[in-house]
Amino acid sequence: MRLWNIVTPLGHYMKGGLGGLGYCLLILTAIVVAQVVFRYVLKIPLLYASELAMLIFAWVSFTGMILAMIDRDHLTIDVLTARVTPKVRLIFLIIDRILILIFSAAVFYYSIAWVKNSLGAKMPVSGIYYFYSYGIVSLSFLVMAAVAGEQIVDSFKKLSKLHRG
Fold this sequence. Notes:
Blueprint (H helix, E strand, L loop, with lengths): L2 H5 L3 H5 L4 H22 L7 H23 L14 H32 L13 H34 L1
Helix pairs in contact: 3-4, 4-6, 5-6
């Protein structure tokens, strides 16, 4: 079973068209526009708006990072990899994914302490625990490390097929 199928059954919905993340971005935009209109035009600040926008922005950003990692949709500069053989390209991909795995594991490890420090802290206006905003960092880098590991294994399988064939 693929890791993606374990991570979220809503993955296809979130990735497709204006899926879950697209709607969240629309909501985020509406909140920020409403906050600006209320604060500067009506002179009545929306108290919850900035905290809610921060929460949605964190979740959309880090969830989008996971989805881009799964689909290999991150921006790349392929000047070098476009000019090499498929075998060398796979080797570059393996090196790339190993570096991502190491970086993701390190960020996950060090973000745990950061999240632990925020466990009792609440946002001043809404009273939402900061954990809900900070926790996505640890979660996303844990998933990214797992996805990178899975992609490394897949790449080694493809490399062995290329080596045999």
